[in-house]
Amino acid sequence: MKLPALVSIRFFEATARNLSVKCAAEELHVTSGAVTQQVRKLEGFLGRPLFERRSRGLKLTTEGLDYYLACQEALTLIGRATDKLMTNENQVVLVSCTPGFATQWLVPRLQDFMYQAKDIDVRVSTSNRKVDLRKEGIHFAVRHGMGEYPGLQSRVLLADDLIPVCSPRLIAPQKTATIDFVREELLLHDEHRGDWRLWFNAAGINHIKSDSGIVFVNSNAVIEAAIAGRGFALVHRALVESELASGLLIALESLTLKTPIAYHLVYYPDTLIDSVSRRFFDWIIWQSKKSSI
Fold first, then answer.
1. Cis before 173 (ω within 30)
2. Closest by alpha carbon to 91, among 78, 82, 102, 100?
3. What is the pLDDT of residues 80-125, one digit of tens each?
């Protein structure tokens, strides 16, 4: 079996991922000339070009793209196998999600996984920014959107209906809470801000300004504000199951909104090759199915 030098593979993978010799050199802490030399050596070894070199930058050839994907998968497996041999600690799965999703959905369920998989540590990184899974060593990310992420796989985790909720104190002493109680100055929004507009349009309500009210950085802050009686929140039912059960929040009698926007589990295809990541993936998909029942 003929194999090229590993250093050439590393330099090619970084160049192909960034589509930039300069960016690859900065990432690898070498000169641009060193990157170019290693990529040329690899192309010479293979007997064919891997890039189309244009005035505006690099583009992978069809064969180059296939080779890049194979190299990326191989380097990932080598890295994980090396980490496993060099440490006696538990294996780690790193998950990135928003603070709201972590607090309201993921963390309350994680005890179940920890009980089943005592040899795996799940580390939850909470952020509202879009993370780079490969560069930051993140196995899975949870993203709120339409599920279209180029180069990544995605599975729906949470796609239940959006419902309006509030504290029972906000509508007391009336016993029945309806949409008639909602006032525009009491609308609570997360950073997406578009859910109330979609909901009002679906309900045929046009006398309330959907962009009024207070905007919070995440859904967790919206839910906390609703519990405190500060206004009306529009949330996925699964995120407030315990609050509804305990009476901290009540759901208004109204239509429910089905939306194409959902919480998706996002990951690179080669992530599931690793048995540790696969165990977490199987568990969280199972949990999501339980939530949809």
1. yes
2. 82
3. 777 766 665 568 899 999 888 888 889 889 989 988 888 888 999 9
Instruction: With beta carbons less than 8 A apart as the criterion, state whether 263 and 157 touch.
Output: yes
In CATH terms, is domain 162-251 a member of 3.30.465.10? Answer: no
- AA letter at 75: L
CATH classification number, 91-158+261-292, choose in 3.40.190.10, 3.40.50.150, 3.60.40.10, 3.30.160.100: 3.40.190.10
Q: Amino acid letter at 257?
A: L
Residue whose pair of structure tokens reads 């690899």 in the numeric block: 42
DSSP line for 179-226: GGG--GGGEEE-TT--HHHHHHHHHT--SS-TT-SEE-SSHHHHHHHH
> Measuring CA to CA, how many Å separate 141 from each of 93, 102, 220, 237, 266?
11, 11, 18, 21, 5
Distance CA 220, CA 217 (A): 9
pTM beyond 0.85: the answer is no
